[in-house]
Input
Amino acid sequence: MAKQSIGIKVPKIQGEKTIVLANKLQIVDRELEIQRDEDSIYVPLNRQPSEDERKAFKKQVRNCEISTYLFTERKKLEASFVDLFEDKLPPYLLASLPHSADIVGDIAIIEISSELEAYGGVIGEAFLEANKNVKTVLAKAGAVSGAYRLRRFKVIAGENKTETIHKEHGCKYDVDVSKVYFSPRLSYEHNRVASLVQENETVADLFAGVGPFAVLIAKKHENVKVYAVDVNPDAIEFLKRNIRLNRVENRVYSILGDARQVVGERLSGVADRVIMNLPEKAIEFVDTACDALKPVGGIVHFYGFINAFSSIENLRSCFTEAVKKSGRRVERIMSSKYVRATAPYEWQIVLEATIH
Output
């Protein structure tokens, strides 16, 4: 259910700081969900901030607006999940329990703090009890790393597996989270970009993974051609399965290999649109994306990271300079968007630019 309540609206880049400050002041309404749209987040408050508290927000958080907004009430499931631990965990650890998870198919992926590691099995079983559609609970056992962007996991409850079928926007994806990179948090972004593609376009997805951009684009458009490239052999095998699973064999073409080499040998000058969802290293492949575009130019979706010490403006400048070095030019950066927070004070950004 939705409910009108006092809240604070801030740009996404200020979200982490705002939540920390509101929690410190003990004015967050925990019965309501934090809301998000493309540019802002809305933090529900349990009362009107005092004059001093308003000044604190204005001083520490730029462009904040305190007003009445529409919030979604928290699902009762969250409360019941915590209730399951009342006689199983020391009271001082209850606040450290994970309250969210990445759900990939019927697998839940949660992050357990070091102080809760000894209770991993108990937490996993409780998560299964509270989420009937989940069959396996995995705990993160390391950071995303390596050329294939993989993470180690530990099964803490349920079936001993890391492979599942994930459904998103009418598509099905066969995914093994231990072998390929996949983030359900990019679901909105997959659909947004796919909706921007026009009929009769040729798209080069340079870091395609199991195909969440490529397959959805082909599913939405009858007359497109998508070249889906990835350097991870496992990702390409799952991509091939997903092409068949979603019946887009005549529109998506999987290619195993390093994007730079593949474009140089097979895809130079073919694309109307290029997707570069490799935020850690995309800047190193800007010349490759420019090479893939048709001689008349086209559109590039460039993903990168910013943090508390950088800005969107810095990222735009780096991207524009990299395009210039490739022998092309940025005609216009059509949009710069926050995609998601990836760590405290770190955000994934997408720049969408027309290149000539």
Notes: The two ends are 48 Å apart (CA to CA). The chain has three domains: 2-72, 76-161, 175-355. The chain has a mean pLDDT of 91.
